[in-house]
Amino acid sequence: MRNDFQKRRLNWAAVEQILPHRPPFLFVDHILEFKSGVSIVTEKYISAREDFFKGHFPDEPVMPGVLITEALAQTSGLLIGLTLREKDPTDVSLMPRFALTTTDMKFLQPVVPESRLQMHAELRKKFGNLYRFRVEGVVANAVVAKGIISLGGFSDYRSMTDKRNN
């Protein structure tokens, strides 16, 4: 981990205020480090009881890459949400919802039960409501996944789906 991070330890309640996800599709337990507008490190304990291990794969359980990517996207969304919340903690209209728009991921090692997955996200570019991040998943000091993801922000999920249905 980098020494230039502004160190904070934020709990699940802070995560819940920013992300709309809830278990079993919330892949962030807590925030380890946060530097406003720059970077964030989160962590998820990968329990052997996770539902996805029942089918992926019963004899040799591995966390699916798409869920690792989702965890990294949630971490990236937290970086933006916490940054916006610092500007005005009382203005909930500042909290956009995000959709994962693009990924370019490489998976280097499997994530297995009873692991602590640390997720690192660094904001690389912002253009309007589009954000690009360099991301990395780490287990026991070994990089297990890395890449670039982009998130697109919108103010209301219902209005986005209504526009698609018209």
List its traits.
alpha+beta; Thiol Ester Dehydrase, Chain A; 3 helices; disordered C terminus
Distance, first to last CA: 47 Å
The parts where pLDDT drops under 50 for at least 5 residues are 1-8, 157-166
| Secondary-structure element order, N to C | EHEEHEEEEH
Strand line-up in the sheet with most strands: 1-2-3-5-6-7-4
Computed Rg: 16 Å
Which architecture would the CATH scheme give at its second level?
A: Roll
| Alpha-beta classification | alpha+beta
Q: What is the averaged pLDDT score?
A: 85
Number of strand segments: 7
Query: What is the number of helices?
Result: 3
Overall shape: it is globular
Q: Looking at CATH, which topology would you report?
A: Thiol Ester Dehydrase, Chain A
Fraction of helical residues? 10-25%
Task: Give the number of domains.
Answer: 1
Q: How would you explain this protein's 3D organization?
A:
The longest helix has 23 residues, at 65-87. This protein has 166 residues and is an alpha+beta fold. Helix content is 23%, strand content 39%.
Question: Which SSEs are present, and which pair or pack?
Answer:
Blueprint: E1 7-10, H1 12-18, E2 30-35, E3 39-46, H2 65-87, E4 97-107, E5 115-127, E6 130-139, E7 142-154, H3 157-165
Antiparallel strand pairs: 1-2, 2-3, 3-5, 4-7, 5-6, 6-7
